[in-house]
Amino acid sequence: MQLKEGKERFIEAWGALGSSWGITRTMAQIHALLLVSTVPLSSDDVMKQLQISRGNVNTNMRMLVEWTLVHKKLIPGERKEFFVAEKEMSKVVKSIIIARRKRELEPMLRLLDELTEVGGDNDEAEGFRSVISDLKLYSNKADKALDALIKVDSNWFFSTFLSFIK
Amino acid sequence: MQLKEGKERFIEAWGALGSSWGITRTMAQIHALLLVSTVPLSSDDVMKQLQISRGNVNTNMRMLVEWTLVHKKLIPGERKEFFVAEKEMSKVVKSIIIARRKRELEPMLRLLDELTEVGGDNDEAEGFRSVISDLKLYSNKADKALDALIKVDSNWFFSTFLSFIK
DNA sequence: CATAGCTTTCAGTAAAGACTGAAAGTAGGG
DNA sequence: CCCTACTTTCAGTCTTTACTGAAAGCTATG
Asked: What is the pLDDT of residue B165?
């Protein structure tokens, strides 16, 4: 396969995959484009390559920067902003875990906390509290596990984890 | 808080959370409804309680059964089908991990396999292959870790994992 | 301190995704 | 083997979410 074709397929497929990860096609495509670019790109470069509007690039780029998957890069003599993707995969993985934990787990923990205070001493209320508290238990475990995962160096974690579990 | 209010809040919030987990509001709401119900429910019960159409219930219920979060339950003397949610949380967690791995990780592994064969011996092609192979490395690690997680008893895993990492 | 060059915002529009409901399909009971 | 009670399907519609593009907002430079 040729490099050009490979890049195109990667950008397209990464975009499609994005949806199943809960991020927009475009955000994922911009990320892919920057990941396989050897040079920093400006908004105009991205607009041109992906055929999307300035506003769209701006919004999605801001999210990528927020997730720390992309950084602004100033080029001396240029007034435009340029962008580069973080290419060290342990950092990429870490950023994704942090962002997803925040989106997917935190709201759940908040909800469950609120619902433990349901009253009543019949079987039905008992059942409800039991479901909620079990959910809470597992959510907390997941939360702590992810927290540990974030704090340690990813390489260390994965290799140790795997040898341990095997 | 009253039980009725608690259930309602749970169903509504679980639905909202669903979107951030990449499942539809309705599928999550049906799941929530069944989780906090002490008796099996029929399609009609669900239609009535959530104010949604028969087709919608049918489609989403099928997905819940596919994810093994819900089981059909036959009640003697009734021709209708009834449904109950799996309430053991270790099983629920396991089902969710399996389904998400399939949706989110498998397509990625397939894509990356395809892209390792990109040719060229300049720096650019080298960089591309490096990004792809790093991604592949981490995806495989995540895949194996999840596989291990699925295979062991969830309780064992979490407690051992946590004491290990702490 | 005015202007050019760039970035951000956001109301309106387009695209994607979910839901409805009626019609077709299926199976137990008589 | 037909009727009735249910389940499934899917074309059309609605809702939600993402994108566009033009206008407003910045900020370096002369």
From this structure: 47
Distance from CA of B50 to the nearest CA of A (A): 18
| CATH number given to A3-85 | 1.10.10.10
**A-chain residues near B94 (CB < 8 A):** none
Domain ranges of chain B: 3-85, 89-165
The torsion angle over the Cα atoms of residues B108, B112, B114 and B119, rounded to 10 degrees, is 160
Tokens coding A60? 């999605």
pLDDT in tens, A56-71: 999 999 999 999 999 9
Q: Note whether A89 and B134 are within 8 A (CB).
A: yes
A19 touches strand D (CB under 7 A): no
Q: Across the beta sheet with B41-42, what order do the strands follow?
A: B41-42, B82-85, B70-73
The reported pLDDT for the residue numbered B166 is: 43
Mean pLDDT of chain A, nearest integer: 91
CB contact under 8 A, A1 and B107: no
Q: For residues B121 and A70, what is the distance between their CA atoms, to the nearest angstrom?
A: 27
Which ranges in A21-53 belong to alpha helices (H)?
25-35, 43-50
Chain B residues within an 8 Å CB radius of A148: 162, 165-166
Is residue A38 within 8 Å of residue A62, measured between CB atoms? no
Nearest-neighbour CA in chain A from B126: distance (Å): 10
Reported as a pLDDT band with limits 50, 70 and 90, residue A1 is confident
Touching A: B residues 66-105, CB under 8 Å: 87, 89-90, 92-93, 103-104
- Sequence-distant (≥ 6) Cβ neighbours of residue B76 within 8 angstroms: none
Give pLDDT tens digits for B87-146.
Answer: 999 999 999 999 999 999 999 999 999 999 888 899 999 999 999 999 999 999 999 988
Q: What is the pLDDT of residue A166?
A: 43
